[in-house]
Amino acid sequence: MNKSIAPILLGIFGIFWVVLAINPLYRDIWVAENLILIICTTYVISTYKSMPFSNTSYWLIFIFCILQTIGAHYTYAEVPIGFWAADLLEIERNHYDRLVHFAFGFLLVLPFKEVITRTIKFSSFRSMVFLLVLIFLGIGSFYEILEWLYAIFYEQQQSPQTADSFLGSQGDIWDAEKDMLITGLGAWLYLIFFTPKTQ
Predict the structure, then answer these.
(1) How far is residue 120's CA from residue 124's CA, in Å, rounded to a whole number?
(2) Considering the entire predicted model, what is its pTM?
């Protein structure tokens, strides 16, 4: 059995997270963005001995957490590399948030699959893909609802500008729908190209 890479990745991520916890662009948004991350990281750590993930899953989780932590530090609409890419490609929008939504589906569908297959067995590869993509579309939708509710609270308690920074919509009225779609697309692509066709 291969030695788990999880402790090393956790140590590296812990240092990275602490560094980016220093002086984020908007502290309140940073806290909100990190709540789900902390809950999920706690789950991964608590199940490390009883129900460990594969090393591949730990790597994928690690990469996503790095991307998410960067977004939380700057807010997704203001990540510098997103502006650099926008200038390079001559587009107006900072697409870092789109990258992270895609990464959520693409990078985390394998860990979800490993959790689910501990209790159920898929009848076919197609049924596995169908169910997991639906799950990620649902999670994406739920997150967009949470963003909307939090932004409403922020508009009432703070300012519309700060609320928009949390949403990261950048003036796109279809931002939520596009984010949900790209999350499902990410999960679908990983399952199609990187998982065995026999289940």
Answers:
(1) 12
(2) 0.89
